[in-house]
Design a protein that fits this description.
Blueprint lengths: L1 H7 L5 E6 L17 E4 L16 E7 L2 H12 L6 E7 L11 H11 L4 E6 L8 H16 L7 E6 L9 E4 L7 E8 L6 E9 L9 H6 L2 E6 L10 H8 L2 H6 L4
Parallel strand pairs: 1-3, 4-5, 5-6, 7-10
Antiparallel strand pairs: 2-3, 6-10, 8-9
Helix pairs in contact: 1-4, 2-3
């Protein structure tokens, strides 16, 4: 996050709004039934003084989800922006796993509000290297500043956690299949029984060339354009055939 903020400040003013705790697996969840608190925090302990970041960096901490943070930032704390960035996240967000990603869930709120949006992650949780991802963001923000895109975009970017010299290229990709499945561990008995859900079982599905998983495995930066239309349009005729005369049975009136 702070690596991203420092890199983006090379292009313009940066406003950071982030949750106050780890939110992996929270997806696009929002806090709707109790208040969400936010407070400004000084950035001096996270980024160096002027010189390393020529444009201002401000920050707020939110007691809520990543999605809450993005909404508060755009609706109350900041207002209109030129680019929404969620991340840099530690650990990949590949394939179907984006559906449970807090990083992608936060980015979603920028996209639905009409802002160019990037969700970005590095492919390591242990000792992640953010330098390449940060420079990618700087270059992308500069490009957007110089030549604004005519179309709204929502990009899911995964960057190998390696040095720049080890990067083999940049590739626009499609989502792979599922990367991990869940396992459940129980503890206790009776009324004290509880369960721990973990996403720790690798699933090897559709990781062919052209997917985000393949690109990352081959030390390429993966850029996947996303959209929100989940309708399986090709299956509509099959479902109509499956339903058959159910509508007639349902809507028929017995005399």
């Amino acid at each position: 996050m702070w690596a991203a903020a420092k890199a983006l400040s090379q292009v313009g003013e940066v406003c950071v709004v982030v949750p106050d705790r780890e939110q992996s697996g929270i997806g696009a969840a929002l806090t709707l039934h109790h208040p969400v608190y936010a407070r400004p925090v000084p950035t001096g302990s996270y980024v160096n003084e002027v010189g390393e970041h020529p444009n201002p960096i401000s920050a707020h901490i939110v007691e809520g989800t990543p999605g809450d943070s993005c909404i508060l930032g755009l609706e109350q704390l900041i207002g209109k922006v030129d680019l929404v960035v969620s991340g840099i996240n530690t650990g990949t967000n590949l394939g179907w796993d984006i559906l449970v990603s807090g990083t992608v869930g936060a980015a979603l709120q920028g996209y639905v509000r009409g802002y160019p949006t990037i969700a970005i992650s590095v492919g390591s949780v242990q000792n992640p290297q953010f330098e390449v991802a940060a420079q990618f963001l700087r270059l992308t923000a500069a490009r957007l500043d110089q030549a604004p895109t005519p179309d709204l975009f929502f990009l899911n970017v995964n960057v190998p956690s390696v040095s720049l010299e080890q990067i083999n290229g940049v590739q626009v990709t499609r989502l792979s299949g599922r990367s991990y499945s869940e396992s459940v561990r129980s503890e206790g008995t009776g009324h004290q029984q509880r369960y721990w859900i973990s996403r720790n079982r690798p699933v090897h599905s559709d990781n062919a060339e052209g997917t985000d998983a393949w690109a990352l495995k081959n030390n390429r930066i993966s850029i996947t354009p996303l959209q929100l239309n989940l309708t399986h349009q090709e299956q509509v005729p099959d479902i109509e055939a499956f339903i058959g005369d159910i509508p007639a049975q349902l809507l028929s009136k017995n005399d």
